[in-house]
Specification:
The protein is α/β, with parallel strands linked by helices and about 130 residues long. Helices cover about 15% and strands about 15% of the residues. The chain has helices at about 110-115, 115-125; strands at about 5, 30, 40, 50-55, 60, 75, 95-100. The chain has a five-stranded parallel sheet. Strands 3-5 form a two-stranded parallel ribbon. The radius of gyration is 14 Å and the shape is globular.
Length: about 130
């Protein structure tokens, strides 16, 4: 049976293995409260991923073809060191996106105060 749920939160993880992309049936990935700096682009190969919880790490950039996560509904990238919100998220059908606590991201107050629908609409305009 394939792994569908993986919770590695609170483990002081610094580096994710590139082989994470081999988890083809993974639906929920929880990596909150670690020391992760880089998300390997191979994670985009987890095509069934629906929830990605990366809050409270040290992530500065997310690379890869994030638009491939067509099943994604929940993304938590709060409390990191992100320089920007990946524009590819605007191509997804997210029900929830948490981006607060990234001091280097400068979004208009009206965008952040409007919650997920407003953030998604803003990201869609950036990706055009």
């Amino acid at each position: 049976e394939a792994l569908e749920y993986l919770d590695c939160s609170n483990n002081a993880i610094e580096v994710l293995p590139r082989t994470m992309g081999d988890l083809k049936e993974l639906r929920v990935l929880r990596l909150n409260h670690n020391n992760i700096r880089i998300i390997p682009p191979e994670l985009c190969f987890c095509m069934e991923l629906r929830e990605l919880h990366l809050g409270s790490n040290r992530i500065s950039v997310m690379k890869g073809n994030l638009w491939q996560w067509t099943q994604m509904t929940v993304v938590d990238i709060s409390n990191n060191d992100l320089l920007f919100v990946p524009h590819d998220f605007g191509r997804l059908r997210l029900k929830s996106i948490s981006i607060e606590g990234n001091p280097k991201i400068r979004l208009p107050a009206a965008v952040t105060e409007g919650g997920t629908p407003t953030v998604m609409a803003y990201l869609q305009t950036l990706g055009e």
